[in-house]
Amino acid sequence: MLNNKSRLALFILCFLFLAGAFCAEEQVSSQGRAGFVYNSKGRRNPFIPLVSSDGRIIRLETEGTGTDLLLEGIIYDSQGLSYAIVNGAVVKVGDEIAGYQVLKIEEDRVIFIKEGEMRAVEIKKEEE
């Protein structure tokens, strides 16, 4: 059986152990999951809603000047119903993005036109 001094020592050790664990948990939560920071790499933050609580679509302002065309993907259809993902938006022939109009969507590139000047943007292949 434990005497009073041993019980007191055991109580103090347990208290210190639990207090240390609580302080460590507080440090993690105050930094937001151990200091994790979301890097969007220029894309939309997926945690920001696209629709308001009353059902209206929220238009998010994107960073940059809007003159760069980043071709992220192509859904090609030989019948002419092709789509492309440009600057995070899905476009088809005739659509306008960043001041350019989509003129033609091919298997590996999209041709844009702006003020009579054509610009072809090729999709970048993933390196293996």
Query: What integer is the average pLDDT?
Result: 77
Nearest-angstrom radius of gyration?
A: 28 Å
Q: Strand portion, in percent? A: 25-35%
Oligomeric form: single chain
| Strand-pairing-aware structural class | alpha+beta
Can you count the helices?
Answer: 1
**Percent range of helical residues:** 10-25%
Low-confidence stretches: 26-31, 62-66
First-residue to last-residue Cα separation:
68 Å
Helix/strand order: HEEEEEEE
Written description of the protein model:
The protein has one helix spanning 4-30; strands spanning 71-75, 83-86, 89-91, 96-97, 100-105, 109-114, 117-122. With 128 residues, it is of the alpha+beta class. A 4-stranded antiparallel β-sheet has the order 4-5-6-7, with no helix packed on it. The protein has a 3-stranded antiparallel β-sheet with strand order 1-2-3, with no helix packed on it. The longest helix is centred in the first third of the chain and has 27 residues, at 4-30. Residues 26-31 and 62-66 have low confidence and may be disordered.
